[in-house]
Amino acid sequence: MTIPNVTFITSSVNNIGERNYRKFESLLHVEEYTPPDRLKAFTVALEKMVRNTEKMRKENFYIRGNNFGEFSLKILIYVFFKTKTWDE
């Protein structure tokens, strides 16, 4: 890639390696006949785990029913770990 000096000097650069958070996103497929109260308890327990885990961002995370599969309900888990490296 070639970037003209003037463009490089006058533009902001997003250095991905300098981020303070690492995103984790997953879809859990839960059996479609799972009772609503168990689904709610499950998502509340996951949210509590995020809030009680030291190295996780406490705001702007999502653990919600997201969609329907062929024979399942899909739960979106969208959280951020407080770390600058994937190794940690």
Walkthrough of the structure:
- The structure is a single chain.
- With 88 residues, this protein is an alpha+beta fold.
- The protein has one domain: Alpha-Beta Plaits, CATH 3.30.70.
- It has helices at residues 5-10, 36-52, and strands spanning 21-31, 62-68, 72-82.
- The protein has a 3-stranded antiparallel sheet, covered by helices on one side.
- A hairpin with a 3-residue loop joins strand 2 (62-68) and strand 3 (72-82).
- The longest helix is centred in the middle third of the chain and has 17 residues, at 36-52.
- The protein is elongated, with a radius of gyration of 19 Å.
Question: What is the compact description of this entry?
Answer:
This protein is of the alpha+beta class.
Widest beta sheet: strand line-up:
1-3-2
What percentage of amino acids are in beta strands?
A: 25-35%
Shape: elongated
CATH architecture: 2-Layer Sandwich
Helix content estimate: 25-40%
The first-level CATH class name: Alpha Beta
Distance separating the two termini? 31 Å
Radius of gyration: 19 Å
- Secondary-structure element sequence? HEHEE
Largest beta-sheet details: 3 strands, antiparallel
Query: What is the residue-mean pLDDT, rounded to a whole number?
Result: 88
Counting DSSP H or I runs of 4 or more residues, the number of helices is 2
Number of domains: 1
**Structural class, from helix and strand content?**
alpha+beta
CATH topology type: Alpha-Beta Plaits
Q: Using DSSP, what is the number of strands?
A: 3
